[in-house]
């Protein structure tokens, strides 16, 4: 690869070492031992529901670590946080007051065609009051007024995207039952999570994954951290499957 890619490739290695390989090994173990089927959309949805927050926390932890590690060479052993502060102190800080506006809205109201005038909300036409030439002084207020007819409140939140249950009531039932099962410490039969299904060596705390070049790496999955996550997966999968099968009858 190009020498210009060395830094980003090294960063991806660090991302893998810090947390990605562990999650990859964990998901592989769920597939190998605990009935995860990645070809089923509902299984992927369940993974996202159960572990999305935890993965984000690991990602944020890596970002925090990376932003506070010293950079050699041109970085002069300063951290990215140090360099960011020095840059803002030397050159100032740019603030974009429209960073939360969609580009299409910015083009519509501030593009080459000039700023539009807001219609009166009472339907009588003419410019809206509150600014010169019938325009609001604050662009944000102007846009909000012009878009008001497109906003419908109150909003009813749909089930999470890809939810196999189809309605909020069934999804809430799933959440309630799962919380009760986890709180009681009950584990389902037939999911490889009960102690009587373990090998003689106990519940495995390593999982081999394939690396580049055909190599294999044994990834440590400490019992106290990863077993509760596997137990949560098994309980959630059992409950989800039971609800879906009952609904199909």
Number of strands: 2
Strand adjacency order, main sheet: 1-2
What percent strand? under 5%
Q: Report the principal-axis shape.
A: flat
Termini Cα gap: 56 Å
Task: Please summarize the sheet with the most strands.
Answer: 2 strands, antiparallel
Rg: 27 Å
List low-pLDDT spans.
117-136
How would you describe the overall organization of this protein?
The chain is mainly alpha-helical and 249 residues long. The protein has a domain at 1-66 and 167-248. The chain has 7 helices and 2 strands; from the N terminus they run ααααααββα. It has helices at residues 6-33, 41-67, 80-91, 103-110, 139-146, 168-184, 223-248; strands at residues 206-210, 216-220. The chain has a two-stranded antiparallel ribbon. Helix 1 runs antiparallel to helix 2, helix 2 packs antiparallel against helix 7 (223-248) and helix 6 crosses helix 7 (223-248). It is flat. It starts with 5 loop residues before the first helix and ends with a helix. The model is unreliable at 117-136 (pLDDT under 50). Residues 2-87 form the Integrase core domain. This is Integrase core domain-containing protein. InterPro entries: Integrase_dom_put.
């Amino acid at each position: 690869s190009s020498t210009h890619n060395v830094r980003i490739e090294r960063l991806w290695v660090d991302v893998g070492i810090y947390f990605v390989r562990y999650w990859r090994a964990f998901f592989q173990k769920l597939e190998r031992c605990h009935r995860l089927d990645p070809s089923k959309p509902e299984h992927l949805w369940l993974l996202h529901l159960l572990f999305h927050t935890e993965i984000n926390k690991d990602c944020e932890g890596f970002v925090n670590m990376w932003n506070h590690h010293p950079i050699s060479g041109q970085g002069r052993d300063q951290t990215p946080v140090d360099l960011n502060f020095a840059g803002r102190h030397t050159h100032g800080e740019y603030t974009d007051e429209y960073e939360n506006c969609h580009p299409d809205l910015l083009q519509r109201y501030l593009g080459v065609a000039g700023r539009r005038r807001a219609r009166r909300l009472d339907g009588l036409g003419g410019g809206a009051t509150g600014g010169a030439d019938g325009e609001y002084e604050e662009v944000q207020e102007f846009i909000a007024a012009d878009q008001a007819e497109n906003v419908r409140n109150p909003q009813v939140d749909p089930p999470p995207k890809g939810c196999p249950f189809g309605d909020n009531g069934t999804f809430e039932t799933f959440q309630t039952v799962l919380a009760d099962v986890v709180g009681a410490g009950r584990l389902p039969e037939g999911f490889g999570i009960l102690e009587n299904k373990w090998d003689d060596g106990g519940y495995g705390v390593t999982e081999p994954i394939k690396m580049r070049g055909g190599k294999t790496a044994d990834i440590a999955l400490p019992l106290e951290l990863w077993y509760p996550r596997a137990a949560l997966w098994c309980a959630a999968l059992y409950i989800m499957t039971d609800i879906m099968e009952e609904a199909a009858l």
